[in-house]
Design a protein that fits this description.
Largest sheet: 7 strands, mixed
Helix content: 25-40%
Distance between the termini: 63 Å
Mean pLDDT: 94
Structural class: alpha+beta
Strand content: 15-25%
Number of helices: 17
């Protein structure tokens, strides 16, 4: 009898397969990283073939490690890095080029042309998104314009497009399908009709035949079943699909209007449930789909921050200041403050609430007093200040004054960072018992579709608190520190434009 729900969590740096029981507890997990390909400044690529190979490996490894048979799994959900663009050959299943990652900024000129042509208001009105390098529609246009022969293949039906979820669903089941949350991140889907918008496709010269069908995030009709000769080893329903940040919102049980979560990963993403109607942002946030159920679609406001955990990786891999992410906690604790240093990690420009494609990273306030520890602490503080930028925008748009913030993602194990976040925001930071709520949300979507869980109330009952971090800074310290951050952000803005 099926007693588990499983999830593929395909992220920017690696892929995890997790199996959960009815209480939402982790039964088994396996993870592998994949290569980051950076052929030139501003370009970030992945090998989609490598991602599929690693996905197969973690599925097979986790099932073997946990002694779990396919018959025990009710359904599989997928959650994924959202705006990354994959194009493949439907006949051979081979990628036709490297995947262009959400962090990639090569579409800057395309986006600037759209803005200069006065088209951004139409995109915002229909999709809830600004015109920015972040989203996958301009990435697909770039590929069609620059990969030899790709446009001709696409128009002949010999090339398929999808975000990474669609790539995995296709490999697992043979179906070319995405869900409403991932489709809402392309700059191609109308938020109200929940369908591809022909006028926007025409603007970006994208053939509609390339695009996957859009389905609910939890689908009792199933997207398909896994192939018996695939990594699962039998036919199991694939019936849950959410972009990673929406999956975290779902896994955090933020099912009521006004509930919010913040996920700490490669980037940082805060989502606020706004209910059954999309809420246009006046403060630099994204209007997006939170999740789609058979009974209806729920919307959210989102603040997307490009570089948070990736800045810690940069300290480790590029500068050699730390050996591991875990080392940041004791190093940052060793100093009382950042020594007057602010680090704005605008490696891919600034996302919410600034949306400045021309911004680049800066470190300001350097003196001979500054040590390695101050730079490490300034990196953690940058995560917290960027989150405050988004929280201020959410307050302005929604009128909701949040008193607590649910958090999840790998960096939440860092107690110092979580305490610093509470201090910078001036609100409680609540860490749940299950930190990997992104995978949990995808598993919940699959389990709901197959009847493993009866409804949202049962999922709410599974959510539990690990620790609450109370703010310690007084208002004067909080505002003085934040004012310094805002000055540093101004130094980073418009750098490429000036060049």
């Amino acid at each position: 009898m099926a007693q588990y729900a499983a999830a593929i969590d395909q992220g920017t740096t690696g892929t995890r397969f997790m199996v959960f029981d009815r209480q939402g507890e982790v039964v088994v997990s396996m993870y592998e990283e994949h290569a980051q390909i950076t052929p030139q400044p501003g370009w970030v690529e992945h090998d989609a073939g490598e991602i599929w190979t690693k996905t197969q490996r973690v599925i097979e490894g986790a099932l073997e490690k946990g002694g779990i048979s396919p018959a025990e799994i009710a359904g599989i959900g997928i959650t994924n890095q959202r705006e990354t663009a994959v194009v493949w050959d439907p006949a051979t299943g081979e990628p036709l080029c490297n995947a262009v990652v959400w962090q990639d900024t090569r579409t800057r000129e395309i986006c600037q042309q759209l803005i200069a042509s006065g088209l951004e208001p139409a995109f915002r009105r229909k999709t809830g998104l600004p015109v920015a390098t972040y989203f996958s529609g301009p990435k697909l246009k770039w590929l069609l314009d620059h990969v030899p022969g790709l446009r001709e293949r696409a128009e002949a039906g010999q090339a398929l497009f999808g975000t990474v979820d669609a790539w995995l669903v296709w490999n697992l089941t043979g179906s070319h399908i995405t869900d409403v949350t991932n489709a809402s991140r392309t700059m191609l889907m109308d938020l109200r009709t929940l369908d591809w918008d022909d006028a926007l496709l025409e603007v970006l010269t994208i053939p509609r035949c390339m695009l996957p069908r859009i389905r609910p995030s939890s689908d009792p009709a199933f997207y398909g079943v896994t192939r018996a000769d695939g990594p699962v080893g039998a036919e199991v329903p694939v019936c849950g699909d959410l972009g990673d940040q929406q999956a975290a919102l779902f896994g955090q049980a933020c099912y009521d209007v006004g509930e919010a979560k913040n996920t700490y990963g490669t980037g940082c993403f805060m989502l606020l449930n706004t209910g059954l109607e999309p809420v246009p942002s006046q403060s630099g946030l994204l209007t997006t789909v939170a999740y789609g159920l058979p009974q209806g679609t729920t919307y959210a406001l989102e603040g997307s921050i490009a570089i948070t955990g990736a800045a810690v990786q940069w300290l480790r891999d590029n500068l050699g200041l730390i050996q591991s992410a875990a080392e940041t906690e004791p190093v940052a604790r060793s100093v009382d403050d950042a020594g007057g240093v602010y680090f704005v990690p605008a490696f891919s420009g600034l996302f919410a609430p600034y949306w400045d494609m021309d911004a680049r990273g800066v470190i300001v306030g350097l003196t001979r007093y500054v040590t390695r520890a101050h730079l490490v602490r300034a990196t953690l503080e940058a995560i917290c200040y960027q989150t405050r930028d988004v929280l201020e925008a959410m307050r302005a748009d929604s009128g909701v004054d949040l008193t607590a913030l649910k958090v999840d993602g790998g960096a939440t194990v860092n107690d110092f960072l979580m305490q610093l976040q509470a201090d910078v925001l001036g609100v409680e930071v609540v860490r749940p018992k299950v930190h990997e709520t992104t995978a949990l949300g995808a598993a919940y979507a699959a389990g709901l579709a197959t009847g493993m869980w009866a409804g949202l109330d049962e999922l709410r009952a599974n959510w539990g608190v690990d620790r609450v971090f109370e703010p310690h800074w007084d208002a004067a310290r909080r505002e003085e520190a934040y004012a310094g951050w805002k000055r540093a952000v101004e130094r980073s803005r418009g750098w490429m434009q000036d060049e």
